Amino acid sequence: MDLDVFVTAHRIEWDRLEHLLHRGRRLTGTEADELVALYQRTATHLSLIQSSAPDPMLTARLTQLVARARSTVTGTRRATWRDATRFLTAGFPAAVYRSRHWWIPTAVLSTLLAALMGWWIGTHPEVQAAIAAPEDLRRMTSPGGEYETYYSSHPAASFAAQVWTNNAQAAAMCLVLGAFLCLPVIWILFVNVLNLAVGIGLMSSAGRLDTFLGLVLPHGLLELTAVFVAAGTGLRLGWTVIDPGPQTRRSALAQQGRAAIGMAIGLALVLFVSGVIEGFVTPSGLPTWVRIAIGVAAELAFLAYVYILGGRAARAGEAGDLDATERSAELPAAA
């Protein structure tokens, strides 16, 4: 494509669109129709220039022009309680449901790895010696030791807030850093699995694995599920960089990235529930079976939420993305 000829042929249309956007008064019906038509044509021109003859200055001008025109055509929209309700009842659970082929294998493999590493640590004294000195290990694993007092070492409310903040940050890092070819997500996931494995191994070697599980399961089921969902979504985002499928890489990343942002908000709420359980239920004087039952109930409620509400919304076409009217226009790509 001859860029100079193309610009000469369409400059009048661009200038006219810019003139309509600068009008200080309301447009007439005819002018509004003209603005919509010019916006559509200019968006097509921008796509052609980007794919065939990219020119930085011209691309920047048309991108700004298309964005302003789109804002004028679609108007501004404020978030409402209806949007929040739709997100919680359809968008978020549908996004989790659609990514289940990523986070379920992540959860299974991570759990098996934690169990295997925990068994290895628990059955090899030399590995335990490499982790800490014998007196330190006894201080951690003995009745009333650090593993038990950890959950009651701070006031419940502040402890729950601290746990929630740390877990939400870890989940957000998995979602955001997934675009870097999955590697940061794998590292964050490994660190979490390793910490769990060390606890399993050390407490099992002291004959107190039941105590450890009684402390971890009430909040850990929901907490780890949220981490696995975040990690699976991050891995999916990273794989999109490698293989975007039939979409362009930019379009595929934009779609997955928007869904990941929504996922971060939803998982923050899930981790808040987990943090409340960890701060108030785990260190409580309730019988172990009651505390574990509360954790199991929270986990089952989340899975039902995802598979019932999320599955229904996903089958209806919900993807956890923004509405078509709220996201940037998809420009056609050159074959």
Q: Please, could you describe this protein's structure?
A:
The protein is elongated. It has helices at 3-21, 29-52, 56-74, 81-98, 100-122, 125-131, 134-141, 146-149, 156-177, 183-205, 209-242, 249-281, 288-315. Helix 1 runs parallel beside helix 3 (56-74), helix 4 (81-98) packs across helix 12 (249-281) and helix 5 runs parallel beside helix 10. It has 335 residues and is mainly α. Mean pLDDT is 85; it is low at 324-335. The two termini are 14 Å apart. The chain has 13 helices and no strands.
For the structure shown, list the relevant keywords.
single chain, 335 residues, mainly alpha, 13 helices, 78% helix, disordered C terminus
Which series of helices and strands comes N to C?
A: HHHHHHHHHHHHH
Shape: elongated
The assigned structural class equals mainly alpha
**Radius of gyration over C-alpha positions, nearest whole angstrom:** 27 Å
Largest sheet: none
Residue share in β-strands: under 5%
Number of helices: 13
Counting DSSP E segments of at least 2 residues, the number of strands comes to: 0
List low-confidence stretches: 324-335
N- to C-terminal separation? 14 Å
| Average pLDDT over all residues | 85
- Bin the helical content: over 70%
